[in-house]
Amino acid sequence: MTEVRELDRADEGQLHDWWTCGHDAMSTLPVDLWTDWEISRHALPQVDPESRIVFLGAYDGDTMVGSGLVVLPLADNTHLGVVQVWVPPDRRRRGYGTALLDHGEALVAAAGRTTILSDVRVPVGEETDDSRWATSHGYAVANVDGVKVVDLEASAALLPALEAQAAERRGGYRLVWWADPAPEEHLDSLAAAMSRFLEEIPLGDLDLEPEVWTPERLRAREARRASQRRQAIVVVALTPSGEVAGYSDLVVAPHAPRVAGIEDTLVLPDHRGHRLGLGMKVLLHQQLRALHPGAELIVTGNATTNRWMNDVNEQLGYRLVDEKLELQKVTS
């Protein structure tokens, strides 16, 4: 009989079993982008003040046979919860995934949330058993992201020409970069730009509301990254008066830098047309390679309808590896 347990995030053995189930569940994908254990073992135990996070394990006796995750945002979008389920391929069709999903949905309902988000990864333009399973449990595709990776060494030769191309249209804007922490003089303007992110990107039918960022919230997130032994590298485009017109950032673990992940890239509407997005991402790639020579890949995701950003990523050498179906279930 399957038993779903809420895990003790301070128990490294439980977390490793949880991590292994997720890693094995994603092993059929074309590129291994599951966060390395050496990163996860430091990051997963840390408490996130912006979200209540619950790790779930499905057990057959004493063996964990599937894992799950529930995230309940506490700062923004408090009407929703996120439920993720991972079951290794050789353990599917035994009810483990359904048991995890039912437990996760019950936690979301108990918290008074009425929208549930999840996602599955599929080959481009295809359905899989995972996506059909999600549909059978009431989840609809609300948005589609293309999952892309770039090989940093192979694409390095592209950067000088792209840097020059971006500079041709920059005008009075200038690019500034840093690794955590952010310079004090840019905090207010960066927080204002980040608060616009969910308003400006293609969300499809996702029931997401804008987030409110403040300098204090930014500092708290930097502190949490440091506790996880991770670091953000940030590039901003500044107007002649010094306001943030756009930003792009990635997160990397200096002790295990194999894969870095792009978080956000945004140019505010009034400042588009100057190739700021291309310039920021070129500089981001350059600084990652300079600071962390062991970095091999950058992974990013963009809505398939975001033609402009997809064009920028193609110029930088990103290749599409699969698609992430962003799923949604509204319960009332």
Write the layout of secondary structure elements.
Layout: E1 2-6, H1 12-25, H2 37-43, E2 51-60, E3 63-73, E4 80-86, H3 96-110, E5 115-122, H4 129-136, E6 140-151, H5 152-155, H6 159-167, E7 174-179, H7 187-194, H8 197-200, H9 215-227, E8 231-238, E9 244-252, E10 259-267, H10 276-291, E11 297-303, H11 307-315, E12 319-330
Parallel strand pairs: 4-5, 10-11
Antiparallel strand pairs: 1-2, 2-3, 3-4, 5-12, 6-11, 6-12, 7-8, 8-9, 9-10
Helix pairs in contact: 6-10
Describe this structure in words.
Helix 10 (276-291) links the parallel strand 10 (259-267) and strand 11 (297-303). The chain has a 12-stranded mixed sheet, with helices on both faces. The chain is globular. The model has no long low-confidence stretch (mean pLDDT 97). It starts with a strand and ends with a strand. With 332 residues, it is of the alpha+beta class. The protein folds into 2 domains: 2-113, Aminopeptidase (3-Layer(aba) Sandwich), CATH 3.40.630.30; 149-323, Gcn5-related N-acetyltransferase (GNAT) (Aminopeptidase), CATH 3.40.630. The chain is built from 11 helices and 12 strands. Helix 6 runs antiparallel to helix 10 (276-291).
